[in-house]
Each structure stands twice: as C-alpha cells, then as structure tokens.
Amino acid sequence: MQRARTDDAKDERRQALLSAALEVFVEKSFAAARMDDIARAASLSKGTVYLYFSSKEDLFEAVLRNVALPKVEHIENLMRDAPSVGEALDGIGLFVPHLIRETALPRIIKLLISESGMFPEIVQSYREDVLDRLLGGVTGLLARAKAAGEIEVGDPALAARLVAAPIAFSALWSVVFETVPEARVDIDALMAMHVTHLKRALGVIEEVSA
Questions:
Q1: What GO annotations for molecular function exist for this entry (predicted)?
Q2: Are residues 27 and 86 in the same domain?
Q3: pTM of the predicted protein model
Q4: Number of domains the chain is built from
C-alpha cells in the first residue's frame, strides 16, 4: 500500500479506517475485533493503522466521535438558529428520522450498550462528549424559553431527558426489533406525535398565520 503523502490523502485514509472499523466493531463487538481485522477491511497494513491510532481503544473512541459529533453540531446549530423553542423542537423532530434511518448512530448506541459492562470508561467518555453535550444544549434551550416566558417547565434538565427519551428508544428499536416487517414503526409519525405532545405539555403557543 502506497504511503499517503498529502493532507487530503491522509484524511481520506483516516476516514476509510474509521468506516472499516465501524463495520468490524458492529459485526464482531469491540472486545472480539482485532486491529488485523480492521486493517484487512480497510485494505491497509496493520502498521498503517497504528500510524493513525495508537490502540484499539483510541480507534474505537475516534469512531464514536466521527459518527456522533457532526450530528450533535447539527442539532446545536438548529437549536441556536431557530427563532422560537417551538420551531427548534419541530426541527429536532424532523431531523431525528434521518438520524435513525440513514446514519450509523443507532448501531453505535447498540454497540455501546453491549460493551458497557466490560469497557465502562469508553461508555463514560461517549456520555461526556456526546450525550452530556446534547442534553446540555436542550436544557439551555428550555431554560432560555422558560426565562422568556415562552414555556412552563419545572426543571429544564429533567425536561431535556423527556425530549431525548423517545429518540433513544426509537434508535434502539430500529436496530434490535425492526428485523421483521411487523415490528417496523413509522418514525416520522412517531416524532411528529412526540413533538406535538411536548409542545402541549410545555405550553408552547403556536403563531397562527393570517
């Protein structure tokens, strides 16, 4: 394998490694996966893998960040740019079906649950880097809306978990139970219903167009 010499080539090789590692980790589990397996899946030598990642743990954490952080940033931008809390919740509800159907995030969540007993430090790192950041963003959104008189909510931090709970459930359902047609759920309809009930519970007042 020819050595990558430009920054673009190095980035492409790193992304290829991350993609290959994700598939190997999902197929074999973190514990059973070997760096040789990942190198083979990426069509690289094992030595090349170690040029980019110092250990399997380092590679696994990079895979988690690579999958999750762009989605976290998208949701943060959505909440920041929405003109009201209602429109922010609408935006989250519209984005979640894409997140579940078209990204690797549900598989990552399933993998984290399966590895949590043996590798709690990796799971805690994901919680700090991803979940705490997301929940903190939603908490801030609700707290600002409460202060502005847009909503009625007791504890914004607890309410943020109510926002997230059906999303986490739907992600897990999609990778655990939806292997048969009768178990499939209309995620678009579910998220629309979730947002409607959230806004009703929070007392969000919708503007009516003339």
A1: DNA-binding transcription factor activity; transcription cis-regulatory region binding
A2: no
A3: 0.82
A4: 2
